[in-house]
Amino acid sequence: MSLAIVSWIAGPVLHAVKQGPFSLRESVRVGPQALLGEVVRIHDDQIVVQVYEDTSGLRPGIEVHGDGQPLAIRLGPGLLGNIFDGLLRPLSGTGSDFVQPGMRSAAAGHRRFEPRIGAGALLAPGAVIGEAGSAAGSTIRAQLCLAPPDVSGVVESVAAPGEYADDESVCVVRQGDGRLRQVAMSHVWPVRMPRPVLRRVPALAPLVTGQRILDCLFPVAQGGKAAIPGGFGTGKTVLLEALAKGCNADVIVYLGCGERGNEMAGVLDEFPTLTDPRSGRPLMERTVIIANTSNMPVAAREASIYCAITVAEYFRDQGLHVALMADSTSRWAEALREVSGRFGELPGEGGYPAYLSSRLADFYERAALVETLGGGTGSVTVMGAISPPSGDFSEPVTSHTKRYVKAFWALDVKRAQARFYPAIHPLQSYAEDAREFAPWWAAQGNGQWLALRRRFLTLLDEQAQLERMARIIGKDALPARQQLTLLCAELVNEAFLRQSAFSEIDRVCSPARQAAMMRLLGRFIELAEGAQAAGVEPERIAGMGCMRALQRMGEEIADHELPRFAELEARLEREIAQITSARETRDAAHG
Ligand SMILES: Nc1ncnc2c1ncn2[C@@H]1O[C@H](COP(=O)(O)OP(=O)(O)O)[C@@H](O)[C@H]1O
Ligand SMILES: [Mg+2]
């Protein structure tokens, strides 16, 4: 392999004089500790290297060795249930809290291999070669073992069922060019190269998040992309964690990127203790955590989002639906800015390099619903938090991200200060694909979804305008019809949009319960408007006995108690009828 001699070092960046050929993006080993780095620029006689580990102690004169391949990670059955650093080196199960310098990405361990193909079979790229059982002492379910996307040919031999190391050959393939390729349960893939698929398919279903405001008002597609911008303390991390616990993805890849160690500690301590509500089994069994906190080397943070999305694609290729949560893409962009500054690049907007936008595009572009090489269907849905400085959404990371995501879940400081959670602002947020999901909701028994969604959004918009007016002229001076609009909007906010991440009953809301709640609120609006048209004053509607039960229905009626919504609806109808007939009696008496 090629050699270069270090001539200049500044933090994570070094220059080295070439003694042989290097290629761009080639992964390299630096110095006696073999620190991991990547060639980011090549001059006539020099290479510029970005080093992913702490460079203190390095000095000019030490050697840089090329790996002859781009920065790559090992993908295999050892991923699920584990915690890794930004370069996919195991943090859990190493007996140490720290990754040793120079350590390589590794899917460690032995596990059982059950072949699914035989000698003489034709192996297509990305096809299933067998199944990997769980490692000794682990409860992780069996996983498919895929041929690497760049291997195809005739199977020469397959290992007998038994215990093998993750990286031990279990299948020998004779390729078209006559060469033999050894295939193991795991394989290595370069992180900056999207894994190939048969084709991308248009999204048909939403990712069910269990959060009412998202599923009903601002849905993201399974295989879609969403951004969660929000100032400090507005609830980004709590929301991402709630999504990781409650969404209907098969596999969760949680990337803690550049946040402070203590924020990440919440995830690292809590996740291993959680139970998956769907299976009753530990949530970690279908989770991969990648932790790259602010105290870890900044250059590795830049690489961590590519590692995370490559891991997500690997599970997608097994025909699974994967949700990737990244907290936060702003810290990633800051790493990009810092490293770019060290290269001496000309800073652009906000000090970020000019390629910020295209890097964001490359990342979000990898979210998709696909037909896999193996013939199955899988998806990667990406949800990225953004922490704009001082909550200003016009800054570069937020504004560029907006160009690439379909769903925008804007967290609002005022709502968060009022402890209204999730603090997603219904007027600043949007979902471009929403209409596409009407058939999906209809199949869930909610044929009214699109109409009710529009009704709620109009109501919330009217509320904002009326409140502005009420601040000037006073709420009581508003006409009765507008007071009723405010009453309905408040109910939609209180009963529907507010959802505590810490309520046993309400932290995840099933589509069936969301549909029942939407229907009941739609019915309330319809009946209240009817009563108002018949002359009933808004304060009488607000004073109905069922109002409290309506406001608290999310907290009080669980997923398995859906008939109680019909009872509440019957009560609402009775009370509306009472106040309407009382009004008619009074009218008759006065007339
Ligand atoms: N959905 C929620 N339900 C209840 N409390 C929440 C919710 N979201 C946020 N909070 C409260 O707000 C605090 C800050 O949230 P956090 O997610 O850490 O903010 P950020 O990551 O945006 O800085 C949390 O510690 C919690 O008390
Ligand atoms: Mg946070």
Outline the structure in words.
The chain has 591 residues and is an alpha+beta fold. The chain folds into 4 domains: 3-70, Elongation Factor Tu (Ef-tu), domain 3 (Beta Barrel); 74-190, RNA polymerase II/Efflux pump adaptor protein, barrel-sandwich hybrid domain (OB fold (Dihydrolipoamide Acetyltransferase, E2P), Beta Barrel), CATH 2.40.50; 199-436, P-loop containing nucleotide triphosphate hydrolases (Rossmann fold); 449-590, Orthogonal Bundle (Bovine Mitochondrial F1-ATPase, ATP Synthase Beta Chain, Chain D, domain3). Strands 8, 18, 19, 20, 21, 22, 23, 24, 25 and 26 form a 10-stranded mixed beta sheet that branches. Helix 4 (298-316) packs across helix 5 and helix 12 runs parallel beside helix 16 (563-590). It is elongated. The mean pLDDT is 92. It binds adenosine-5'-diphosphate (ADP) and magnesium ion. The site of magnesium ion (MG) has 5 residues, from helix 2. The site of adenosine-5'-diphosphate has 13 residues, from helix 2.
What key phrases describe this protein's structure?
alpha+beta, Elongation Factor Tu (Ef-tu), domain 3, OB fold (Dihydrolipoamide Acetyltransferase, E2P), Rossmann fold, ten-stranded mixed beta sheet, binds adenosine-5'-diphosphate, binds magnesium ion
How does the SSE layout of this entry go?
Blueprint: E1 3-10, E2 13-18, E3 26-30, E4 35-42, E5 46-51, E6 63-70, E7 72-75, E8 83-84, E9 110-115, E10 122-123, E11 128-135, E12 143-146, E13 153-158, E14 162-165, E15 169-174, E16 180-184, E17 187-190, E18 199-201, H1 212-217, E19 225-229, H2 236-246, E20 251-257, H3 261-270, E21 287-292, H4 298-316, E22 321-327, H5 329-343, H6 356-365, E23 368-371, E24 377-386, H7 396-404, E25 407-408, H8 413-417, E26 430-431, H9 438-443, H10 449-473, H11 480-497, H12 511-533, H13 538-542, H14 546-551, H15 553-556, H16 563-590
Parallel strand pairs: 8-21, 19-24, 19-25, 20-21, 20-22, 22-24
Antiparallel strand pairs: 1-2, 1-6, 2-5, 3-4, 3-6, 4-5, 7-17, 9-11, 9-14, 10-13, 11-12, 13-15, 15-16, 18-23, 23-24, 25-26
Bound molecules: adenosine-5'-diphosphate and magnesium ion (MG).
